[in-house]
Amino acid sequence: MNIMLFHSTYGLRPAVREAADRLRGAGHEVWTPDLFDGRTFETVEEGMAFNDEIGKDELLKRAVLAAAPYSERGLVYAGFSLGASIAQTLALGDEKARGLLLLHGTSDIAPNASVDELPVQLHVAEPDPFETDDWLSAWYLQMGRAGADVEVYRYAGAGHLYTDPGLPDYDEEAAEATWRVALGFLETL
């Protein structure tokens, strides 16, 4: 499978590279574009401030340019938190998308979004301050109306970015469960 993996608001941290290596170890080809031009951040607030400085349109432009050379191959879009929202936007706009793997995040869905049974898997903490229960319920229904085939996995007690061993949110048990399920999902695509 060809996977375009987008980093979180912390930037292209070692955890993203480790995740890409894990996916490569399972036989996938993986690209990890650096949407922040080498900048990484220690706190979510610093990352969000930089994200705001760049602007959503510029981030999406950078993501589209990173994915464009490979989209003909039929990409699985994937991402962590902010990167998941970017992955979702790109997948819903790419008719050749093979799947969508969302880790720790979702995004708004355009009212006219339409896909043909796009396989989508979401992994989030429960509770998650950035992905509230009400938001996730509405998101799930909207994705279904858009034509996506959605699976949602919640991890009680885990922190928001629980798959990143370099952050306080890290939860080894939840992270390993996430990767087991996600790798199984990718095998079905």
TrEMBL record:
Keyword Hydrolase: yes
Keyword terms of this UniProt record: Hydrolase
A Pfam match: DLH
Residue ranges annotated for the Dienelactone hydrolase domain, each copy included: 3-188
InterPro entries: AB_hydrolase_fold, Dienelactn_hydro, Dienelactone_hydrolase-like
GO MF term list: hydrolase activity
Top-rank taxon: Bacteria
PANTHER family: ALPHA_BETA-HYDROLASES SUPERFAMILY PROTEIN, CARBOXYMETHYLENEBUTENOLIDASE-RELATED
The protein's name in its UniProt record: Dienelactone hydrolase family protein
